Amino acid sequence: MNDPSDTAFDVLVIGSGLSGINAAYRIQESLPDAHFAMLEARHELGGTWSQFRYPGVRSDSDLHTLGFAFHPWRAKNPIATGESIMDYLHKTAQKFDLEKKIRYRHKVVAADWRSEQQQWRVQVQVGDGEGGERRVTYWTKWLIMGTGYYNYDDPMKTNIPGIEKFQGEIVHPQFWPEGLDYKGKRMIVVGSGATTITLLPALVDSGVGSVTQLQRSPSYIMSLPQEDQPCFEKYAPEWLTLRYKRFMFTLIPILFYKFCIWFPSLASQFLVSKAAAQLPPDFPVDPHFKPGYNPWQQRMCLCPDGDYFKAFSSGKAHIVTDTIKSVVADGIELDSGDKLEADIIVTATGLNMRFLGGVDVSVDGEKVHVPSQYMWRTSMLTSLPNLGNIIGYWNASWTLGSDTASRLFVRLMKYQQEHGYTSVVPVISEQDKNKTVSASPLNSTYVRNAMSKMPKCAERGPWRPRDNWFVDNFAAWRGGVEDGLKWERVAQ
């Protein structure tokens, strides 16, 4: 069990979701003598999968790659429910004896790198946040941020004119009320992303009176079969089948992504035709399923076995592509002149992205302006020594990026020990700064809104944004640890 008086560590991992558990396993596996802990702000592990409770909540990536390489997803369905993902995370933590490393209700609020001590001084709020909390100071040589990419406390605030006039119930999926009674009622779900694609069939299946998806513009949506059984599975050993599935679910999305980027018109025609084939006969594809942007300019949505498309055959699910004139007491008036009546409005308009979990970071007491920094291999930031930040992929599952980052951090720690270094920090040249690029290739509203909060990338070498697991996996395994990094030995 954890000793609460123990506050000095070699490594602190912030967060115990997919990223935190993955990082903890890699540390335990490769640095068996390291003294480390995970600090979790919530009452349980799981991160996103602990918080999200809306109907039908499920992964928007396949579990063969969203799951861990060291503990493969064994179920046949690649798209999994939130409940089964939570069960998988608990079993992983128990199997590898990681749960004892987690300190719950430990919210990191600030971290200051102290050059003299060559350590991070971490301010932690301990308690449930209801008046009984206290501040505790931790010290650590390395700080790894596995805090995800969005604000757990505040959803993205979308300007919906007249929303205050609505006399029904307004719900944001991030804070879905327990026991919300929507059976037999009229619902409007505002949005076109992964949450909406998940909600629509789940609401239809659980007794909603009617549900209308109201979107300003459509998304590209692909159906993913739930029985992904290779022809040789009956004869091959399980370990081989699982590796094959993980490899194929890594390779095919990368190839498809490249196809979409290189041949956007062909990719668009393919995706729209696939959607049309799964909709009811004579269902209008344009404008509801014909986006005005190229594939992968926004994140692609997945639905298992086409359940989203099938929902429109129920007679309970409808879709409207229009813009909102104003919300009124009993529904939404549209710019087209039409009106949608509703008892409940769900604002599935995106997440409020946040970097470094909202932790205030500083160096020797001087606050670091994170948006001015550059990312080294999308995993470390200029100006911040011995700090690893875990970011998944925009165009693939989160855990693929999380694992390459965690293995890279472990390599850096080993290199530090072997050569007697006490700190490492990314340093970018002025020449590379002249070729600054965005950290994200997506132009979704929630991503655009967050760009001013995010650090930058550049065009060259370790400063480039990453989009290919095979390249990043090699870099984590065998890539150089000199280019773009400054190593120091400071007597303590």
UniProtKB/TrEMBL annotation:
The protein's required cofactors: FAD
A single MF term (Gene Ontology): flavin adenine dinucleotide binding
List the keywords (alphabetical). Answer: FAD, Flavoprotein, Monooxygenase, Oxidoreductase
Q: Which InterPro entries match?
A: FAD-binding_MO, FAD/NAD-bd_sf, Flavin_mOase-like
Q: Which Pfam families match?
A: FMO-like
PANTHER family named among the record's database cross-references: MONOOXYGENASE, PUTATIVE (AFU_ORTHOLOGUE AFUA_8G02570)-RELATED
Entry protein name: FAD dependent oxidoreductase
